[in-house]
Design brief:
By secondary structure, the protein is mainly alpha-helical. About 70% of the residues lie in helices and about 5% in strands. It has a two-stranded antiparallel sheet. The longest helix is centred in the middle third of the chain and has 23 residues. It starts with 8 loop residues before the first helix and ends with a helix. The mean pLDDT is about 90.
Length: about 230
């Protein structure tokens, strides 16, 4: 194995180990080599290795058993959605799967929001929609757009929808700069999103679901073209 550079050594080692795990070099269920041998192979101390292990244990990729060793977890069976940003960063192919879930969840959120939103929430949505058009630069427009979706999730009255919205945004956060195609023109971004907000604020649940589905499919297509 090639010795690692000394700069941010724990970060570099964590990244190397994570890549090896996600690429299948250390298969799920297998035990990593003994710490001393692994540390020597990477040219690091056992203390540095333990720090990297700790991060990967926290991320859900490893589990350490005292007196037994460090085993690779089967993240597909036991992992949670908090792993998605790491998986997307490793393989952008995950973005398509994230977007498939985004479509289904987003349409349900819009429908529920139309049924349950309060007057103050309707006013907040209208103000946040205006902020999309007023934003300057693709990054600012994209973030303004996200705030509309967070508000839609809150308007459902279901806190799980709010957490799911955060999770899905965080999932593609590592490649967000590549997904700004729908947000380069504030007027166009506003025009795409306006039917969703209008249907929700007027309480038309069926129309809200249809508008959200159309919006999500349209923006997904543009974003995936940019990612390609």
């Amino acid at each position: 194995m090639e010795a690692l550079p000394r700069e941010t050594i724990v970060d570099v080692l964590e990244d190397r180990l994570r890549t090896d795990i996600l690429d299948g070099r250390h298969p799920a269920g297998s035990y990593l080599p003994p710490e001393r041998r692994l540390a020597d192979g990477y040219g690091v101390t056992r203390t540095t290795l333990k720090h990297a292990f700790g991060r990967l244990v926290q991320a859900g990729l490893l589990e350490t058993r005292h007196g037994v060793g460090t085993r690779v977890r089967d993240y597909a069976r036991s992992g949670g959605a908090d792993l998605l940003p790491m998986l997307v960063r490793h393989d952008s192919g995950w973005v398509r799967e994230v977007f498939e879930v985004r479509r289904g969840v987003g349409a349900s959120i819009a429908e529920r929001a139309a049924e349950r939103r309060t007057r103050p929430q309707a006013a907040e949505l209208s103000a946040l929609l205006d902020a999309v058009r007023a934003a300057e630069g693709a990054d600012a427009v994209q973030l303004a757009d996200v705030e509309v979706h967070r508000a839609l999730a809150r308007a459902t009255g279901n806190r799980v929808y709010a957490l799911l919205t955060n999770t899905l945004f965080n999932a593609y956060l590592p490649v967000r700069s590549l997904l700004q195609g729908p947000f380069t023109d504030p007027e166009a971004a506003h025009r795409r999103l306006a039917p969703v907000v209008e249907a929700v604020t007027t309480g038309n649940a069926r129309r809200a679901r249809e508008a959200a589905d159309a919006y999500l499919r349209d923006t997904e297509r543009i974003m995936l073209e940019g990612l390609a």
